[in-house]
Design brief:
This protein has 138 residues and is an all-alpha fold. Helices cover 82% and strands 0% of the residues. Helix 3 packs antiparallel against helix 4, helix 5 runs antiparallel to helix 6 and helix 5 runs parallel beside helix 7. The N terminus is likely disordered.
């Protein structure tokens, strides 16, 4: 491989390997849930642990369990925007668009700026689109 080609090919390959490496190290969702359940047993007031387990449940398609963990996370930490957003997405995936809209609207009222607000606006736009209200989605 000549020097010029190596200079252009190797950096993207290295970047891809750096990105894929942590993904390959991730445990299977079932193992992750088991570990998180054990950690929750030791720290039952950790909203973050419930949020993490909910995301694993989402990956597995276990939306009822995900919703329960997200609701618990929000009872422990009502201002946790990520949990509010994921709860809205979970409700939406369950076909509960009214609950999803309530969740995202509540989160938007508490969030005034930044990336959190942007991600909530995207979820709200998706909900309006699903409701066939494209003008509101904009």
């Amino acid at each position: 491989m000549n020097h010029q080609l190596r200079r252009f090919v190797l950096p993207p390959v290295i970047a891809i390997l750096a990105w894929v490496g942590p993904l390959a190290a991730h445990e299977e969702p079932e193992e992750e849930i088991e570990e998180l359940t054990e950690r929750i047993a030791r720290a039952p007031e950790s909203a973050d642990l419930f949020l993490q387990r909910a995301i694993e449940y989402q990956v597995m398609g276990k939306l009822t369990e995900a919703a329960k963990d997200l609701e618990r996370s929000l009872r422990l930490s009502p201002g946790l925007v990520l949990a509010q957003r994921e709860l809205a997405r979970t409700y939406f995936a369950q076909g509960k668009t009214n609950e999803a809209m309530t969740s995202v609207t509540s989160a938007l009222q508490a969030t005034t700026a930044g990336a959190d607000r942007g991600s909530l606006l995207i979820v709200r736009a998706e909900l309006y689109h699903a409701r066939r209200e494209p003008a509101k989605a904009l």
